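Before relying on records like the one below, remember that each one covers exactly one chain. Contacts with other chains, cofactors or solvent are not represented anywhere in the record.
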Amino acid sequence: MNKLFTAIFAAVLLCGVIISAGCISDTAGDNTGSSLTGSWAAADNPLVTLVFNTDGTYSGEAQVNLYNGTFAAKGSSLDMGEGVNRTKRAGPSDMVEAEDSYIQRLTLVSSYAVSGDTLTLSDTDGKVLLIFVRTSSAVNGDETAESLPYGTWQLEGRDKVTLTFSPDGKYSGSAPINSYGGSYSKGIPDKETQRTPLLLSNTFSTLMAGSPEDMDAEDAYYSALHSVASCSVTPADNGSPQRLELFDKDGVLLLSFTRAVETAPSTPATTAKRALPYGTWLLAEDPAVSLSFNPDGTYSGRAQVNSFSGTYLVYGPASKPFGESLEMSPAIRTKMTSADPTVNVEEKQFFDTLESANEYNLSADAAGILDLLELLDKYGSVLLTFVKEEET
């Protein structure tokens, strides 16, 4: 854990001790269900998240699995429902044990207190069970888009080295040789340094070889990424491009990027032809499965169990008889398995089908907005159908 998160945890732990000593009644009048709304990260592990929605549901990502349930808040009381639903991913035994402990504590929650950007969950005796820090202050109207590194960035001095952050907590990009990807978690911007805590994890990449110079450059780049602890985004000003800087735990600048120019289709997409499949698509038969095509030639997504990424090329127009030509590299995947063998079989079928894709077709609605993506084999048979993810 970096020093910044250690400091946050120490501060909120002290707050939790004060609350458990008898201060809940002093702040209970300020607690409303609406103060819970938004995204939170565990103070001792920012990769563990909890989101309270306005419809009375909650969801999040624990050490291994995704989870969800229902809640009811009244005053300082908080009922987390009758049970917690979890996916069935497998993981290292220590992470599974930590997750079981986390979920068990969630089921014991009886009250909550919100103080600024800190959420404390306690049991019926007032014992502090869990402490979170807010990761999205949008409900308070004080978070700006400039603090979020969403989109595609180019490494200064290396135009072909890119880094893309997606709102779904995934990142991907192109290194000097290979494509790579993983997960990220961010914290609350520090008011003094104006930097946002940022942790990159679960990094994976393709395994292609290159020249010794490029291999050394790529190793150095990955090493820098693994040391990232915070970031800052500088808005464009007076003709200067928007800038993303990544820092280590001591505040030392590791990497600098400028905003990549994202190429859009040259004409409004009123027909399938000549349109590119940029954006995030959801599998029609299972919306939990996603596929994103990025302008930098990389793709990424989430299958039934694992996350994946790779590179792609689009040929055309009309270089194939049935649709636009598409070449996708074999997907690089995380290595999780489900306790349900059926789910593992479904995922294998998905990846096998994805690797058979040779062409694609895009369809647009009456307003000319692309809303349907079909991946086809070389004979023109539809393999997979996706619908465009709605922008929020």
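The first helix runs from residue 3 to 27.
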